[in-house]
Design brief:
CATH architecture of the largest domain: 2-Layer Sandwich
Strand content: 5-15%
Number of helices: 13
Number of strands: 5
EC number: 2.7.13.3
Radius of gyration: 47 Å
Domain Signal transduction histidine kinase subgroup 3 dimerisation and phosphoacceptor: 183-248
Transmembrane segments: 49-74, 86-104, 124-146
CATH topology of the largest domain: Heat Shock Protein 90
Number of domains: 3
GO cellular component, one term: membrane
Enzyme class: transferase
Shape: rod-shaped
Order of helices and strands: HHHHHHHHHHEHEEHEEH
Largest sheet: 5 strands, mixed
CATH class of the largest domain: Alpha Beta
């Protein structure tokens, strides 16, 4: 609409100026008007062909036609993406044409009057008029064009940042999902270790209690006491684990973590970095919580519980004992615990040997049992997750886990776990 209005005003102006110019040179006025209409209407295509508009304004300058055409044409040319050298050439040509025509008209007007200014004054007046008609639209167009390019560059940069932040948000969401999956897996392993071992021993003792209840009341009483102790230990460990699950990151046990997490990631850098920080915190939580887990010093008590359940277990320790990183000791303990639980489940009456070796940069352990000795099968169910959980624990610490049957019909579980604390000390 702006171009249509400008073109209509320019066409009307050129129509009047064309009629005046035709009368001045002795031509029919209608011819001048017909010439002025398309010249002024050329502003309709000023955005597409700004060079043509400026060239036309320069061409009709001798006829003193196209004042609005010249102003709008120079502004559009300066604000467009036309190369600077073309803008300079056309602006110089328009300035020169306006200067010449203004000087000639001023000299002609002064010739018919009694006032005779000097040549210098005529040139000065003509130069001021030419600059006044050429410089303002040209400078305004250059400013608008530079501002438009700046806005476009800022918009492109904002779009790029938005895409980058969206990518960061997606990666943060993926890391958060990975951290949640790792946490679920870790909790499942802990629950399996706590429940499977304690309850398996309780079932074994209960079966033995049933077998000797009438024959040996004293032994039955001892087994009943053991079952009670193990049940209380299992409940204590379960309460501790459930207490950890109920705790929020701020220490408030009442609000579930999902209620405090945002519904979605905001498309800003602060939100993305916050989610990345939370994900890293969740991923590092197992390392912090492992410090409260079991340790290698409790292996003797663990083996003693299996002996009390009727299993012949031998514990061999090689090397000088020392402390390891909490996760290393907890993993080694859980491997032995799960291996002994599997012996109770799958090889009733079999003997077992637990070997623990303290080495310079690692701790090695092996649990081997013989073939079943015909003991009473307690009918314990198996979920098939014991060996998988042991392998996951060991490999997560960069260790090696091997399991399989022996030549004598038994089963062997071996693990080598690097000493994380010693490795960090050497690196420092």
């Amino acid at each position: 609409m702006l171009d249509v209005v400008l073109a209509a005003v320019s066409a009307f102006e050129c129509l009047l100026e064309g009629v005046a110019f035709a009368h001045e040179v002795g031509l029919p006025g209608a011819l001048g008007g017909l010439l002025g209409l398309p010249v002024g209407g050329l502003l309709l295509v000023r955005r597409r062909w700004p060079v043509a508009v400026v060239l036309m304004s320069i061409a009709v300058t001798p006829a003193e036609m196209g004042f609005l055409l010249s102003l709008v044409g120079l502004y559009t040319l300066a604000a467009s993406e036309v190369p600077r050298r073309i803008i300079v050439v056309l602006a110089s040509a328009s300035l020169a044409g306006t200067l010449i025509v203004t000087a000639a008209r001023f000299h002609q007007d002064m010739a018919g009057s009694a006032y005779r200014p000097g040549l210098g004054l005529e040139l000065l007046f003509s130069a001021v008029m030419a600059l006044g008609l050429t410089a303002p639209p040209l400078l305004l167009g250059l400013y608008v064009g530079a501002r438009r390019r700046l806005v476009e560059s800022l918009r492109e940069r904002a779009d790029g940042l938005e895409r980058e932040l969206s990518l960061l948000a997606e990666r943060a969401e993926e890391r958060a999902e990975w951290a949640r999956s790792e946490e679920r897996t870790r909790i499942a392993r802990e629950m399996h270790d706590v429940v499977a071992h304690r309850v398996s021993l309780m079932v074994v003792h209960a079966a033995a209690l049933q077998a000797v209840a009438l024959k040996d009341p004293e032994k039955a009483s001892r087994n009943a006491a053991l079952v009670g102790d193990m049940g209380r230990q299992a409940l204590t460990e379960l309460r501790e684990m459930l207490g950890v699950l109920r705790k929020t990151p701020d220490g408030d046990p009442g609000t579930p973590p999902a209620a405090r997490e945002p519904e979605r990631l905001a498309a800003v850098a602060a939100a993305a970095s916050e989610r990345v920080r939370r994900s890293a915190g969740r991923a590092a939580a197992p390392a912090a919580e492992a410090a409260d887990g079991p340790c290698l010093a409790e292996l003797a008590a663990l083996v003693g519980q299996s002996r009390e359940a009727g299993m012949a277990v031998e514990l061999l320790v090689e090397g000088e004992g020392r402390s390891y990183a909490p996760r290393v000791e907890s993993t080694a303990y859980r491997v032995v615990q799960e291996a002994l639980t599997n012996v109770h489940k799958h090889a009733p009456g079999a003997s077992a040997r637990v070997r623990l070796a303290h080495r310079e940069r690692e701790v090695a352990l092996q649990v081997e049992n013989g073939p079943p000795a015909g003991g009473t099968d307690a009918g314990l169910p198996s979920g098939g997750n014991g060996l998988v959980g042991m392998r996951e624990r060991v490999t997560a610490l960069g260790g090696v886990f091997v399991s399989g049957p022996t030549e004598k019909g038994g089963f062997r579980v071996s693990a080598v776990i690097p000493d994380a604390a010693r490795g960090h000390a050497d690196a420092a």
